[in-house]
């Protein structure tokens, strides 16, 4: 420890120019050679001995740990510390405008959730320099020893991410054969199972043309648990599709290991009220899996992280794993048949693969979600405690995707839904390939050797790249058969463009063959019809036009689509606990594109003049869109209004000042973005007047913001006001706030609507 502390003391003695030169050129300036050698003497020996001890303890299934020199550790320390250094050197007296413009320089791309990791509490600001140095050194020692994907960290340079090459031959589908004793080949003999029925169906060109040109026909049905279910298809009229009242696991055509493991894994969600004959699925899982197992597209907009989130995760993990095991069993079985076939025999019946290997793509928002998915996979593959499956790189995976409980400050008070969404590791830049072969699982598999890819929208976007970039790749998406997008509502808070970019590049013909055996490729893939066979499972916490657009315009499954379309009866306004008059002011717009300009003009002409008077102080303006926020901020500056502003890119010091100025009344207006509230959930004190520039994306945000007024003990309840701007294109959001009955009345009437909530509604 003495040598390490001494090394850090020497590191602190470096000037800014010395550190900058070391970061940029990877070596010290010749003038400081003696100092560099002294640093290496203090850093190399202790770290090398630690690495050698660690490498001797690694299991055979883990990748070998490389020896990391102290020089590289020193270099990494400098690479990972500029953020903390800049925070320490930042002058607190900078103007808010300067801080805001600096933050907005990086607003494009993927910085949305990076602020979420910082925004735990003001008391959790920059750590001590010594602790930061320790953390940086530990991070790099693990990254270089294990080959961490350092491209996820914006403070690192572009370093090639780790892929597991060691186990390539063990997980190759081309060189392995079905184990007779496993009995997995039985899945291939079941001609009635949904997997074979879906993948073996041969579409005709007339049917493809019909799906591309004709509109879909739809029908509705009422299910016990899902509610109002809408079926839509192009090829034929929907047949009566009802949920099974009881599900026998043996009738679901699950792959053999899953039949015995699923009831054990899912036992935690079952209650005593569930029937003994239906002990393996909850009512929600039963109906969802009924749709999944039919290989229809599914959109379920009622996912709740607090209640049914894990139920749904287990259900789609079962479906994805069942699909992969069946597909691989078919390939391995055909490998054995080809090996034993007579010379000159026809091989057309062995078309069992796509143009690339990845079959399932799972899009999730945070690393914690990927960690839970892999844990579910492992649990489903382990028949009992004695028969553990071999998981390559498991220790490294837990280190990178897990979280340290001590990192979270102890005295945070946040809503329960916030704690559920932001639990664990909330890094939003990741991607990992998973290969599954019989009784083994390989984490960090190269994409073209993976069966399942788990990634965030940002993580997959950085691989796909943009047009004109030299280094980009999306061939691995060419033969995806199941696309799962979980927690789609969170991507609205991150960057929805990443999701749209993915949908434009999935199921395209690859630019390279990637060593595929074309004699084994299905004709549907060769004909570029993969998108008509792809099943899309979309889960969200809310109905939103952008999410609906993806489901309606980018899903072409020939089996059709199933969407849950329940309407809210009460709305979140019933959860407002303060006595507050609500005025809903309708603005007129001719089209969706004209709403943006129409809302701005309506606000500055008719709403804002009513609040310019000094009597209407302490006015918070809630703005869901960042672009609307920038537009309003620029207008307020131009008009020289007395205001302050907080957005998701505002630095902590500026947030504290803005909250203090607003509470004391030094600033009349506070511009407040929805994404800041999503990531931070601070209670803003001092509000007397509320203006919702647009209805919130999350309906419960409406009641949360309104209930902030009770945090102000000023005894002026009668002067509180709340104004909401809406148009006819906000029907879904409006229904989620006021309920479906009031929404119908408000859309029919062009007058302003006044509602008074007593706190008892």
From TrEMBL:
GO terms for biological process: maturation of SSU-rRNA from tricistronic rRNA transcript (SSU-rRNA, 5.8S rRNA, LSU-rRNA). It comes from the Eukaryota. The keyword Nuclease does not apply. Residues 295-562 form the UTP25 NTP hydrolase-like domain. The keyword Phosphoprotein applies. Residues 48-156, 333-353 are annotated as: Disordered. Keywords: Developmental protein, Nucleus, Phosphoprotein. GO terms for molecular function: rRNA binding; U3 snoRNA binding. It is found in: Nucleus, Nucleolus. Residues 342-353 have a biased composition (Basic and acidic residues). Residues 84-105, 114-134 have a biased composition (Acidic residues). Residues 572-756 form the UTP25 C-terminal domain. One of its GO terms (cellular component) is small-subunit processome. Residues 138-151 have a biased composition (Polar residues). InterPro entries: P-loop_NTPase, UTP25, UTP25_C, UTP25_NTPase-like. Belongs to the UTP25 family. Interacts with CAPN3; the interaction is required for CAPN3 translocation to the nucleolus. Component of the ribosomal small subunit processome for the biogenesis of ribosomes, functions in pre-ribosomal RNA (pre-rRNA) processing. Essential for embryonic development in part through the regulation of p53 pathway. Controls the expansion growth of digestive organs and liver. Also involved in the sympathetic neuronal development. Mediates, with CAPN3, the proteasome-independent degradation of p53/TP53. This is U3 small nucleolar RNA-associated protein 25 homolog. It comes from Pheucticus melanocephalus.
């Amino acid at each position: 420890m003495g040598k390490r502390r001494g090394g850090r003391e020497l590191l602190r003695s470096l000037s800014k120019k010395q550190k900058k030169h070391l970061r940029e050129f990877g070596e010290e300036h010749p003038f400081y050679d003696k100092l560099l050698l002294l640093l290496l003497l203090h850093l190399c020996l202790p770290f090398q001995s630690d690495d050698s001890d660690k490498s001797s303890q690694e299991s055979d299934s883990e990748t070998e740990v490389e020896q990391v020199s102290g020089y590289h550790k020193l270099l990494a320390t400098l690479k990972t510390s500029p953020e903390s250094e800049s925070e320490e050197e930042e002058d607190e007296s900078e103007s808010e405008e300067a801080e805001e413009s600096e933050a907005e320089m990086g607003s494009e791309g993927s910085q949305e959730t990076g602020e979420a990791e910082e925004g735990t509490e003001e008391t959790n600001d920059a750590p001590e320099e010594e602790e930061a140095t320790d953390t940086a050194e530990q991070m790099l020692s693990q990254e270089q020893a294990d080959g961490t994907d350092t491209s996820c960290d914006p403070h690192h340079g572009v370093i090639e991410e780790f892929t597991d090459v060691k186990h390539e031959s063990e997980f190759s589908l081309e060189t392995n054969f079905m184990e007779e004793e496993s009995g997995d080949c039985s899945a291939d003999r079941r001609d009635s199972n949904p997997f074979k029925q879906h993948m073996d169906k041969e579409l005709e060109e007339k049917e493809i043309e019909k799906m591309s040109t004709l509109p879909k026909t739809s029908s509705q049905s009422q299910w016990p648990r899902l509610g109002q279910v809408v079926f839509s298809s192009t090829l034929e009229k929907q047949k009566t599709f009802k949920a099974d009242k009881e599900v026998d696991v043996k009738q679901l055509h699950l792959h053999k290991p899953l039949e015995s493991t699923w009831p054990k894994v899912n036992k935690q969600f079952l209650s005593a009220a569930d029937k003994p004959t239906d002990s393996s699925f909850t009512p929600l899982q039963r109906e969802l899996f009924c749709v999944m197992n039919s290989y229809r597209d599914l959109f379920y907009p009622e996912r709740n992280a607090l209640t049914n989130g894990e139920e749904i995760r287990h259900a789609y993990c079962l479906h994805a794993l069942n699909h992969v095991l069946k597909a691989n069993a078919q390939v391995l079985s055909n490998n054995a048949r080809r090996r034993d076939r007579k010379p000159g025999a026809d091989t057309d019946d062995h078309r069992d693969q796509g143009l690339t290997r990845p079959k399932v793509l799972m899009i999730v928002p945070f690393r914690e979600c990927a960690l839970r998915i892999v844990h579910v996979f492992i649990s489903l593959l382990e028949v009992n405690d004695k028969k553990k499956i071999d998981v390559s790189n498991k220790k490294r995976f837990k280190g990178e995707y897990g979280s340290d409980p001590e990192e979270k400050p102890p005295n945070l008070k946040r809503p329960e839904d916030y704690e559920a969404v932001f639990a664990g590791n909330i890094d939003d830049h990741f991607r990992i390939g998973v290969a599954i072969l019989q009784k083994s699982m390989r984490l960090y598999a190269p994409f073209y050797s993976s069966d399942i890819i788990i990634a965030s929208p940002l993580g997959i976007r950085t691989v796909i790249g943009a047009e004109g970039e030299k280094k980009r790749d999306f061939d691995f998406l060419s033969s995806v058969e199941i696309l799962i997008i979980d927690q789609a509502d969170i991507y609205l808070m991150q960057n929805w463009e990443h999701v749209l970019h993915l949908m434009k590049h999935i199921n395209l013909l690859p630019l390279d063959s990637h060593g595929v055996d074309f004699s084994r490729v299905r004709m549907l893939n060769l004909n570029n019809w993969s998108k008509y066979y792809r099943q899309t499972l979309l889960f969200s916490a809310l109905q939103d036009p952008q999410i609906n657009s993806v489901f309606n315009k980018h899903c072409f499954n020939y089996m059709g689509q199933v969407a849950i379309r329940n309407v809210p009866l009460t709305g979140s306004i019933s959860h407002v606990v303060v006595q507050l008059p609500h005025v809903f002011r309708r603005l007129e717009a001719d089209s969706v594109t004209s709403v943006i300009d129409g809302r701005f003009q309506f606000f500055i002409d008719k709403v804002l003049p009513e609040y310019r008077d000094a009597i209407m102080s302490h006015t918070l303006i809630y703005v869901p869109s960042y672009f609307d926020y920038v537009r309003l901020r620029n207008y307020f500056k131009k008009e020289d209004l007395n205001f302050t502003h907080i957005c998701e890119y505002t630095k902590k010091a500026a947030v504290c000042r803005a909250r203090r100025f607003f509470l004391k009344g030094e600033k009349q207006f506070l511009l407040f973005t929805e994404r800041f509230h999503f990531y931070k959930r601070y209670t803003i004190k001092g509000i007397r007047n509320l203006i919702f520039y647009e209805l919130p994306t999350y309906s419960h945000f409406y009641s949360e913001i309104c209930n902030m007024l009770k945090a102000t003990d000023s005894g002026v309840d009668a002067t509180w006001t709340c104004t909401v701007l809406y148009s006819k294109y906000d029907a879904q959001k409006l229904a989620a706030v006021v309920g479906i009955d009031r929404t119908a009345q408000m859309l029919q009437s062009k007058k302003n609507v006044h509602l008074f909530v007593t706190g008892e509604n």
